[in-house]
Amino acid sequence: MALVKAIRRFTVRTVLPEPIRPLARLATNLRWSWHRPTRELFASLNPALWEASQHDPIALLGSISREQLQDLANNGDVVDRVQHAAADLDRYLSEPRWYQGLGEDAPACIAYFSPEFGITEVLPQYSGGLGILAGDHLKAASDLGVPLIGVGLLYQAGYFKQSLSRDAWQQETYPVLDPDGLPLTLLRHPARDGVPGKPVQISLPLPNGRELHAHVWRADVGRVPLLLLDSNVPSNDEAARGITDRLYGGGGDHRLQQELLLGMGGVKALRVYQEITGTPAPEVFHTNEGHAGFLGIERIQEAMSDPNQPLSWDEALAAGRASTVFTTHTPVPAGIDRFETVQIKHFFEAGLAPAVPTDRILELGRENYDGGNPSVFNMAVMGLRLAQRANGVAKLHGVVSREMFAGLWPGFDHSEIPITSVTNGVHVPTWVDPRISSLARNQFGAEAEALGRWDLAYNVSDEDVWALRRELRAQLIEDVRRRLRASWKKRGAADAELAWTDSVLDPDVLTIGFARRVPTYKRLTLMLRDPARLKALLLDPKHPIQLVIAGKSHPADDAGKKMIQDLVRFTDDPEVRHRIVFLPNYDIAMARTLFPGCDVWLNNPLRPLEACGTSGMKAAINGSLNLSVLDGWWDEMYDGENGWAIPTANNNSSSEERDDIEASALYELLETQVAPRFYGTTVAQGAGAAGPSESSRESVPTHWVSMIKHTLAHLGPAVSAERMLHDYVNNLYCPAAVSGRRAVAESFKEAKELAAWTSKVRSAWPEVVVEHVDSVGVSEEPQVGDTLQVNAYVALNNLTPDDVSVEVAFGRAEESDELEDIVVAELDSVEDLGGGRHLFHGSLVINRSGSFGYTVRVFPKHSALASKAELGLIANA
């Protein structure tokens, strides 16, 4: 054993011979992580070292000796392939793509802030769905030519690595990352007189006279630069160096300082990056979840401290909101970061934003609404107040978000709350298995593959589809056996005890996958609700199933860890351990075989607590069928032929009753529908739960294969991240850019006008009253098609009819007088009655039989508002 230890460890980058020098650029641009030809090039340089490096090009190049590198440089075929790959990358980075065809109205630059980015396992800066989504967002933006800049933090240990103790308790380790060994470059000021420029350093003041400094690292995600701030710099004191120590690792002040650095420091980093590179200033700022919300405060600080034209608070707020998009990812209040108001005050009084009144900042995050806690600073509430446009990440999640944040818009119907939705998508080149791509390319040509012709799945023979599914299943099983053996060795087992791992799982058995984070609401152990029934399913002689399960629980979540322990103890049972496995340390590398290898993807959260749940999308693009509660994306995309919907219990059931009901429904589906269909059998009338009493079996289960083809053809384009980026660009980014440009044009003329108008309206609104409404034109026996004339007498006091929109809302009237299936029509101002009173008139056509009702409402109206509910002001009749 070596007794001499290094006092410092660092990575030395390889110097490549000139003929193969482009390999360095190919290795540092993360396009290789989803570009198959580039990965194949690296693998061919030294297949053994490629495997040993865990498919990390930088580690690979660092492992090849100088002599071997020179041999490669002397190999004409290798040099040609390297030059071809470099030229292909140059074309990819420079040629016009979809976005370049949108014209001048499209924003010249978009800043995308997120606390985590899951791009590749060699850059472990992600914990789960939020980070993977952010990584897919950048990749799809690159492929489409969207001029995005990502902004995040560089965590010294990333998220934790998970292992299991002998008694199946989750254990965490935090290997420290060396940025020099990652696909990153340190952002530096320009060189002068041949002397390299100094590293860029961002600084924020902290309480008690301290400062927080950060370097900025750049990752190239295809065409998209990603800026990552790193507080582990010599100029910081020990506490400040640890602020970016790990992802979601701390609480209280530690978490708050991470989010201040991400938001405020991130804007500062962007400004320096713009100056160094000449990149256009972002016209849109996208806040991916509330963690990055302080970016809005930094932008207000910039506007209020501009020496040439300082804006007031209201003006700066109006200008910043116009060009900001906020995406919320959580369907539960407990998932939102909340700080004590005194904490926020303590940090901002240290001079973080000296031009901005601290009390105004506190009001942005204050829960000053019914059911809120006014002493708490809510990051999502601040994010919504700082953004003119907001969205959830699935249609159902949009509904849930509008209900969850309804307190910010009192008096409005939930459907009118200005939070829309953009359903998440997944980056297909990253997540689709190469075998599926190869099949498409071989059968239909590279052009069809490039165009994403998912409908061509129908043209593949059933036999080819079924054979490919078995091949993918076998690939997964090989990976499972290797990982399971390694896991047991970490749990303390000897090699002599582990021969059984060589025969775990069967390539001809229905394989079900379940992998995600392990908070309690995702119900990892719902499948264990009736252990005997699960065991019967696993060991069924005619229709057996097998399960591959993975997931991490947050280090502070003992309830989640207990779920993992309960599940692993079940999988340890020698009777079933060949049919059910738990794999620790779920990450991108594991996912690459897990999604394609599973026949069915299981998801059973408590509805409606799954915001989107993109793991099922990744399974679908690989030909897996979903078996899921109707939550998240599945609620809108399940069609009866792409999988199965697990019925849900009534919301008024107790948690125990709900779990019992939904677990029973899950078992029933597996026993009577999923397994028989996979095995190509027809269950005879009256078959029991343990399996069919009589059945006929197909060599290729045609109904199952037809569901696979249907899934690929219909879900493939619907769940792609390219579709998601199209939605963001068309529905949020372009409108935000237009609003932002208008707000700042002519020395912020519109922002100033909007701020003054908003102040006037807020002051006058308490006196706005719908005094009286009358109607004429309906007979004693109203009929469908009758026209109703509506007159509304409204006291506007200091406002004018141009400041408001008066509308009649009508629809089906319930017994409680609440309106359903509402239609609205705007009323016209027809007479000034004096004394601030006005008559508004309009007509509506009775469009339904049965109970009918209407009401009149008044909203503020201004051309710079994105919705009638934006200011949260309404006057009802």
TrEMBL record:
<dbReference type="InterPro" id="IPR052182">
    <property type="entry name" value="Glycogen/Maltodextrin_Phosph"/>
</dbReference>
<dbReference type="InterPro" id="IPR011834">
    <property type="entry name" value="Agluc_phsphrylas"/>
</dbReference>
<dbReference type="Pfam" id="PF11897">
    <property type="entry name" value="DUF3417"/>
</dbReference>
<dbReference type="Pfam" id="PF00343">
    <property type="entry name" value="Phosphorylase"/>
</dbReference>
<feature type="modified residue" description="N6-(pyridoxal phosphate)lysine">
    <location>
        <position position="618"/>
    </location>
</feature>
<dbReference type="GO" id="GO:0008184">
    <property type="term" value="F:glycogen phosphorylase activity"/>
</dbReference>
<protein>
    <submittedName>
        <fullName>Glycosyltransferase family 1 protein</fullName>
    </submittedName>
</protein>
<dbReference type="GO" id="GO:0030170">
    <property type="term" value="F:pyridoxal phosphate binding"/>
</dbReference>
<dbReference type="InterPro" id="IPR024517">
    <property type="entry name" value="Glycogen_phosphorylase_DUF3417"/>
</dbReference>
<dbReference type="InterPro" id="IPR000811">
    <property type="entry name" value="Glyco_trans_35"/>
</dbReference>
<comment type="similarity">
    <text>Belongs to the glycogen phosphorylase family.</text>
</comment>
<keyword id="KW-0663">Pyridoxal phosphate</keyword>
<dbReference type="GO" id="GO:0005975">
    <property type="term" value="P:carbohydrate metabolic process"/>
</dbReference>
<keyword id="KW-0021">Allosteric enzyme</keyword>
<keyword id="KW-0808">Transferase</keyword>
<feature type="domain" description="DUF3417">
    <location>
        <begin position="16"/>
        <end position="123"/>
    </location>
</feature>
